[in-house]
Design brief:
The protein folds into two domains: 34 residues; 58 residues, no CATH class. The protein is built from three helices and no strands. The longest helix is centred in the N-terminal third of the chain and has 33 residues. The N and C termini lie far apart (113 Å).
Length: 104
């Protein structure tokens, strides 16, 4: 009986120590992959950054087109008239603006 318990303790030590370290390694690997700062989150953030950089590029191109069109307007035009024409030509306005166009 004593001999069996001694062998059982020896085998338990040989099994428990690697199992313990395997558990620790598994714990850290799972956090490295699935945590808020893990690989999956990193790939998701990279995808969001690429999408927003593409949108930023599109917005910059739109702004350059608007700047070019507005630079073609000549000096000496009344500011209200310039604002009216810019809104009419570009179709841009703030949602809260009320624009009334009247035909003279």
């Amino acid at each position: 009986m004593m001999l069996t318990l001694l062998k059982l303790r020896q085998h338990a030590g040989q099994v428990l120590i690697p199992t313990f370290f395997l558990g620790i390694i598994t714990y850290f690997l799972s956090h490295a992959i699935y945590d808020d700062h893990g690989l999956i989150a990193w790939f998701s953030l990279r995808h969001q950054i690429e999408a927003r950089e593409a949108k930023l590029l599109d917005l910059r191109e739109t702004r350059e087109r608007i700047d070019l069109r507005s630079s073609l307007l000549r000096d000496g035009i009344d500011r209200d008239l310039l604002d009216e024409r810019a809104r009419a030509l570009l179709g841009l306005s703030h949602p809260d603006d009320i624009i009334i166009f009247k035909n003279d």
